[in-house]
Automatic annotation (TrEMBL):
PANTHER family: CYTOPLASMIC PROTEIN, CYTOPLASMIC PROTEIN-RELATED. InterPro entries: Csp_YhjQ, YHJQ-like. This is Ferredoxin. It comes from the Bacteria.
Amino acid sequence: MRQCIEACLACHRICMETLTYCLGMGGKYAEARHLRLLMDCAEICQTSANFMLRGSELHSRTCFACSEVCGRCAESCAQMGEDVVMNACADMCTQCSDLCWKMGGGVMSQTPNPEAAQRAADLPA
């Protein structure tokens, strides 16, 4: 767990630094989708670290979400080409995604939601 916490905190930091870098670079670096992913990644990493630090029984759920967001952020950063800052962010996001995947158990169990199921059943075919 300690290794995952440290990865989440490092990923939060690098995503925030990369966000600032991207804003300064402009162009494709500052596209809204990419900036949102960096912000989402930083936020979920901070949240996941906090859940683990306080021993929350729900930490596996935040870790699962963190793994998914980090994976998407890594892909987005890697698409920027041969940029040392973007590659460093992609590498850290990939590492965090892998550790959070293990911490989250690799699968997100779905608790049945009867209200959502009824709304879905009421939709026209």
